[in-house]
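User: My collaborator sent over this chain with a note saying "see what the structure looks like." That's all I know about it. Can you take a look?
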Amino acid sequence: MKKIVVLGAGLVGGVMAKDLAKDYNVTAVDISKDNLDKLNSIQTICADISDTKNLKNIIENFDLVIGAVPGFMGYKMMKDVIEAKKNIVDISFYPEDPFELDQLAKKNNVIAVMDCGVAPGMGNIILGHHNQKMTVTDYECLVGGLPERREWPYEYQAVFSPIDVIEEYIRPARYIQNKELIIKEALSDTELVEFEEVGTLESWNSDGLRSLIHTMPHIPNMIEKTLRYPGCVEYLKVLRESGFFSYNEIDVNGHKVRPVDVTAKLLFPKWEMKKGDKDFTVMRIIIKGEEKNKKVNYEYNLLDRYQDNTISMARTTGYTCTAVANLVIKNIYTKVGISPPEYLGEHFNFVKNYL
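Assistant: Without extra context I'll predict from the sequence alone. Here is the result:
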């Protein structure tokens, strides 16, 4: 039986480990014993994988690596795995340019699929699928994961590392308009959008296009926006403008601290999902263009809710990744080098059926 190691056993990593364990010999690795204790009947290793030597020793005898670590660890983790000559499918959302690892991956004959979640991830696969069949002129993705219960003041719960969530609020948003790269601050251009069964949500610019900016330069209009309950953005803008999300150290009574670390510490208990809390994920993708000399407009809608004791954001993110993991470990997807998910467009139906 093929052996898979999942690096990171948090809310998403743990779900992926359980899913893959149905068909493979799976081991989950995390620095938190609490996270590992939740994984009944799965082999676990409690270790610090930020240590390169530790990481390479752990993954030595595995056929595939799944990356589910916080974004600030993601790039180094992927580089270490590629240097160890192991194939990897990764969901870590890190700020560095993954294509800087492309030559290293090719040199080591490694398949490395990045950003393989719901968005970026499934949205990219859908676009890659249509890009092979038509001339795409417009791509719009609206996506968000939200708690079913709205609780003042943030009406939000985080399933990822709080620092990763805060990154979304401060990283400049890039989108393509009339073939021009537009850069705006995150949380800008808010719009109210209606969704069936959910009601009105608020969309705002986030840096979700990622690799599409470089891999799909022929598409004149591309944008991704994040969804939250209306009104939430104003709180976040106030915190950001007041410096609470800053990475620059300040002096507090003789102690050097980064405001973002304090903010994460304060906000995470308010954002953390408690026992009994439920969430949902909503995504709408619209692709326009020309196919067989006709104007076409494709729309995809996803609404997924907490079920089977599994949070929706872990399901939608994790199962896209495990679908692609199956493609790699079964030698169906064999492209060596760094692969953003849009490269897997031809496997759209496999991933869709898996989901």
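A starting point for your reply to your collaborator: The mean pLDDT is 95.
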